[in-house]
Design a protein that fits this description.
303 residues; alpha/beta; five-stranded parallel sheet; 12 helices; 7 strands; 9% strand
Length: 303
């Protein structure tokens, strides 16, 4: 398919006169198009769920979550990977993003980087891929050379490939093990895929990474429990999380946190199971660090 023929590059008849609209009419037009994005993503929920179910066991076994892309798609991937680290207590080795053109491309346009197969292969060769790694490759058009080459290299080395694009039947969708293709249609401003395609990618990446984190025990109830108390602010946050998770006082939470050597998941299991530190540690070890499963296992043993 020629680039100009891509749906993401077509003119949007619903925004043809956006330059003549009042400011309120203009933002209403944009908002109506964003509603279309949400519906397009909704149609991909089965594919998103399948990708999460394939990815989380690998991540749980030490696999890494690696994002690849160029331009807007690449920057959004780097953002998702970076934000996962403080939110869920991950290291930069567990999740990271690769963008065509390298770090400079995060703030500047690097000419021809997205067309470089060689750059993609070199970038992927530098991360020592394994068959437990998960690679999320994103390209609105589904045909960016850098992204395709990176995903192909990853799959050739045993990694699982998830592909995000906004074009059905695109080369990226055909290549990926788990294609996710919300068809958002023509952009509000012709060809500006930082708009609807970018919004769709952010929504999909949110679901993918959040789903993987939940499934691998980084969340208890709806609380992020892998916060590491390193200062007064994070210590207070940890106490609040423990108190809310266990429906107890912040004083009880503080005592449990001290007993567990500032380990939030351990403190939660300690309170929820009313056992000893040794018993709480054993429950977490038996369930691979999953707090929900540890609490459930304790209940089963009591019964």
């Amino acid at each position: 398919m020629q680039f100009d023929d891509l749906l993401t590059e077509q003119r949007n008849h619903r925004s043809t006169h956006i330059d003549r609209e009042s400011t309120l009419e203009m933002v209403a037009t944009i908002n109506r198009e964003d509603h279309r994005v949400a519906r397009a993503v909704q149609k991909q929920l089965p594919q998103i769920a399948a990708a999460i179910d394939a990815a989380y066991p690998l991540f749980d076994q030490g696999g890494r979550l690696i994002y690849v892309g160029a331009g807007t798609s690449g920057r959004l991937g780097v953002i998702d990977a970076t934000e996962l680290q403080p939110t869920y207590g991950l290291s930069g080795e567990q999740t990271f993003g690769l963008i065509a053109g390298g770090e400079a491309a995060l703030t500047h346009t690097v000419k021809a980087a997205e067309d470089s197969v060689e750059m993609a292969q070199a970038d992927m060769a530098g991360v020592d891929l394994t068959d437990k790694d998960i690679v999320i490759a994103s390209a609105a058009s589904g045909q960016t050379a850098y992204t395709l080459a990176a995903l192909r290299f990853a799959q050739d080395h045993g990694a699982v490939g998830i592909g995000f694009s906004c074009i059905e039947g695109s080369p990226l969708a055909e290549l990926a093990d788990y294609p996710i293709t919300p068809v958002v249609g023509p952009e509000i401003i012709t060809g500006a895929t930082l708009l609807k395609a970018g919004t769709a990618e952010k929504m999909v990446l949110n679901m993918l990474s959040t789903g993987i984190m939940i499934k691998t025990g980084k969340v208890y109830q709806n609380l992020m429990i892998n916060v590491v108390p390193t200062n007064d602010k994070t210590f207070e946050r940890a106490k609040k999380i423990i108190a809310e998770a266990t429906q107890t006082s912040t004083l009880a939470a503080e005592r449990a946190l001290e007993r567990s050597d500032n380990n939030v998941p351990l403190a939660i299991v300690l309170i929820e199971t009313k056992g000893t530190i040794a018993e709480a540690k054993a429950l977490l070890a038996a369930t691979g660090g999953h707090v929900s499963q540890a609490v459930k296992l304790s209940d089963t043993k009591v019964k």
